[in-house]
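Before relying on records like the one below, remember that each one covers exactly one chain. Contacts with other chains, cofactors or solvent are not represented anywhere in the record.
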Amino acid sequence: MRVWIDVTNSPHVVFFRPIVRLLAEQGHDVTITAREFAQTLELLEDTRLEHTVVGPPHGGSTRVGKVRAMTARLRALRRFAQGRRFDVALSHASHELPLVARSLGIPSSYAFDYEFARAQHALGCRAATRVVVPDAIPQDRLDRLGARARKVVRYPGLKEEYYLHDFEPDRNVLDALGIDRSRILVVMRTPPDVSLYHRHGNPLWTDVLERLDRDPSVHAVVLARTSEQRDGLRLAGLPSLIVPRRAVDGLSLVALADLVVSAGGTMNREAVALGTPVYTTFAGRLGAVDERLVREGSLRRLVGADELVVARKASGGARSTRQPETLLDRLLQARPG
């Protein structure tokens, strides 16, 4: 079977890594296309996943830029896929892939776990053969995106639990970044926007950043999404913070950290899966997955920087029992028959 996977953002690399391995072990031919955005290409290189960059980079923060980039990438993906005779196409929140796959008659699965990126998901859900989501997302929210129950396939738990099922952290990442092991390690993730470091975008996240920088007992690593965010953080002159210049082993950092504070979603759920205390400063509406985690107490929503409890993590960590084969089975339900 010829399988086409499109990777357009950093979290998709770790999501598909065990999927690609399983497909290869089963004798399938896997082709990966990718888009230049955030640390996607660096992570693909670090994980030795062979890939082809197709189309322009991310279109930036403006609507016009996004539409132009999407239009150009749709054409490029179609040219790439024509004549390759793919049997199925798989993506996680790459809405462009199911659009191209449908135009070429290729069955496709479109996975996601945050339902309020409506413009993006409405395209992917309507074009895809199957929509693969966590069981926490209620059907009425999917209906609004064009994902009727007949095409929805659900999986239990978090997607992060599947790709972290056999994960072992690498402590060498601490030395590589120059982290002082006598201090409390906090890992932060910047907000999910394409913008410079600024107070009006997510002021709570900025307040937390400045509070941690003033705390001599803390060593904080800030993982920026874009080069613009990285440059802005460096120019801000916060001496107690470490801002890596390129992609690092973020999973090991999260597993070894005493605390995670993230304005996004994936790193929060990775922390939950790995047993690291985590706060969210996400400024938008929480999706059903994170709503459930908040109710269960495994994810804490931060209202003010003074509410942040900075302390050593209890020894030991979580270990997922979710098998990636289950997730692969859901994705491959796009195939006819």
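Residues 63-81 form the longest helix (19 residues).
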